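The freezer alarm interrupted the setup, so I double-checked each line after restarting. Inputs confirmed:
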Amino acid sequence: MHSYSWVQSALATAAANRLATVSLLAAFWLLLAAAGMMRPHNIRYVARILFPLGALGALAMFCAAGSFLLSGSAPETMTLAVGLPDLPFHLRLDALSAFFLLVLGMAGAGISTFAAGYFRSGEGTAPGLLGLHYHVFLASMAVVMLADDAYLFMVAWEAMALSSYFLVTSQHRIAEIRQAGFLYLLMAHMGAVCILLSFGIMQGGGWEFTFAAMRGAALTPLRATMAFALALAGFGAKAGVVPAHVWLPEAHPAAPSPVSAMMSGLMLKTAIYGLLRVTFDLLHVRFWQWGLAALALGLFSGLFGAIFATVQTDMKRLLAYSSIENIGLILTAVGLAVLFAASHLPLFAALALAAALIHVLNHSLFKSILFLTTGSVLHATRQRSLGKLGGLIRYMPWVALFALVGTLAIAGLPPLNGFVSEWLLLQAFLFTPQLPHTFVNMLVPLGAAVLALTVALAAYVMVKFYGIVFLGRPREASLDQAHHSNWLERAGLAWLAAGCIAIGVQPQLALRAAGAVTGMLVGQTVAGSPSVWRIAPIAPEQASYSGWIFLSMILCVVAITFLAVRLLVHGRVRRAPPWDCGYRWQDARMQDTAEGFGQPIRLLFGAFFWMQVHLPSPADEQPRYRVHIEDRIRRALYRPVSAMVQRAADAVSFLQSGRLALYLLFSFLTLLVLLVFAL
Amino acid sequence: MKGIAFVWQLVEVALAIALAPLLTGWIAQCRSWLQNRSAPPLTQPYRMLRKLFHKEAVVADHASPLFRAAPYVLFGAMVLAAAIVPTIVTDLPFARAADAIALIGLFATARVCQALAAMDIGTAFGSMGARREMMIGFLAEPAILMVFFNAFLLFGTTALPGVVDHYASHPSVIDPSVIFAAIGFVMVLLAENARIPIDNPATHLELTMIHEAMVLEYSGRHLALIEWASSLKLFNYTCIGIALFLPWGIAIHGTSFGYVLFALAALIAKLAVCGAALALIESLSAKLRLFRAPEFLALAFLFAVLGLLVHLLMGANTSA
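Predicted 3D structure, all chains:
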């Protein structure tokens, strides 16, 4: 009885001071990180105690952030006593950070539960060390969203980049993985430099680095635009926006699957958070041209990611390209919101922004499901190449079921969640002819067509992914040894899949949560719902959507048809070998390969690819057909730069002689030069 | 009032389910006449459905539950679409569940389910059909979206009952953009429903087939449901076209018995004309090579965009 009232009072305190609660949760994750180092080689201790505790922390984070959003509380601020002298850490919890913390908690709970069942000992880094990086990664993402000054933001941002770098390279004995990790670290730091410069411009000469000061800083239009451009470049590099996307398809496959899920589902979203924070909150959206730039980049990234995803043959690379596509969709929505907000159409801006936010939430759920299922498949089959998988629905039915939910959701199909955000975004596009700028109001509506193409291509990609991994016949004989996932993995997947379905049929809740953010950023909230059954963001007679009716109607018709067929006709089934137009000698190798499924795209969008096709000659003893596909942007943009850096490094390499006396001489000369400047 | 609306909703769905095979039969009959063949009776599709339902369903040894569930889901999705598209009345409770854009999503759900089921058995034809169907799908979606964009600019709504109501209150609206949009829509309809020039529903010629390649492994009641769903899809698409471009006659002033009877007669007349027109288009055109399909659908897209530009440049009647 006594302990019960203690719990009650603790909950009441937590509800009254949510910022303290979420900060403590972040600290709790750091504690778990440290606890992992106590017995770093004990897999049972780390996986069965620490990771589930981390999942509980994430669940608490989800509840705290959700209650903050739905109660519509005022922002809470706090100044910590730690930091540099005269430079304390500022924390702030407002609707924007609460929404992203909600995403972090919701997806993080599922991923941590899965990870508890996933990590095995003897795979690269010691489990305790993995737990350390993993929980520091989680905590640093939370702090990024809570930071209220540029200093703490950058500290957390770097902690996030470094901890995820160590997670990516947890199989560091493989040279390719080290290389992927290096590329990731390089891009992360290029981005960080841009963000730092952007903050440097935004302080506006007052040398005051709190966000409160930046909100009030008076910037010239040129400086504001420079700050926006740097922020777009910096956060874009972290989010994987084309042309800064090259690290994604390398780093995501290299990382262990729960980490890929976390990076793709959550870390990319911190960049979206940063972009929203800078553009809407700190710079107060000034020019519609900013929106146009973001919109164009977003549409191109989306299309580019979708096209490249279709031709991938490695399941994790395919998902990485699909992340580029989804980030593109989110950036498109953000760009549209900026465009509307700067043109003084706040209601439509709120609609586009709500689409962006809900897609952030959705993508964190379904992309996590898909990356986690690749983890289960990888453990069960030891195969990552699509060409060696197939038919797993018969050996891993649970994983296949959850993957199906994720697949249909990411393909943007009703009544699941992916459709909701895409529908909202298309609704926002419908109002673009009302933009008050000639030509813009004619060109931007065509963006809707690019968007539709991207979304439909995403469905193509996902049919390829699911069809080749889970359906058909096993392409390797060893696949019938594939074993089940364990219950913790299934529990994590089930939580995420339930989220996909819940948001799909009841988007009102997500819309309300997003409404708190749009109210803060653009001063408008889209109309909620005319009834509990459906949503109608602008006006009920203009357009409405009801996930409930979709799901219940389809289920009802399926049930009625099933019963009617059984009762009126018969339910007999005969099992026989597949027919295939009567061809008897078919085998698993006659199915479409991953390359074959992507072939129409290679033909249609040939201009995007740099391709080398090797055809066998008729006289070949062992004929081999090989297609090598590369990214044109990577070839044209990155190859020359890296070659130039290499040449420059070679040119000055004579300095690196290894003799101490020479190095001391260099230091002395540098000092002299500096003294000359100082005098 | 509310109860009556539900009754009409049910009547409309039942009518769609019942009439859909008739439309398919009518098109087949018209095609036969145009090609100087003796025509099958109008009721041929019903007989085929009856035959298939009574046959034994043969399922491949290693088929997963997804393969057996797909025909039901497909049928369910098409029935839901029939509940959303206004055919005889506009006061439909379920029509609020989706506007035209959500309808595209519903058709996409059906397409993905069918493609996945086609890949389940792991035959060469199944995965080939799935790949081609998805390709046609992603080419058609931008075009159909632009058509609905046109409709939104003209009528200020993407909800189909709203479009029909709008026609009734502005009877003289003939915007040139409507014509462009209509051409684009018909082209998408042909592609989406596996008709000539994109696909030929009457052959099993292995190099060209799309839809038939996906359903090769189905038999018995599963095939019957798929065939019925295909008929319903064609019926739904035609009715979307009617609601967008020829909505006159749909009962909007109330759901009294006389109005509805008139609406039903108008619907049947319009379906007969549209079906005959489709048969004419199919008889006049030749099947395109598969990789000419992108050009065909790009043309549909361009027509819809032209409609959009015409509307914006004229700057007139913007009710949005």
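Quick read of the result. Chain A touches chain B through 86 residues (CB under 8 Å).
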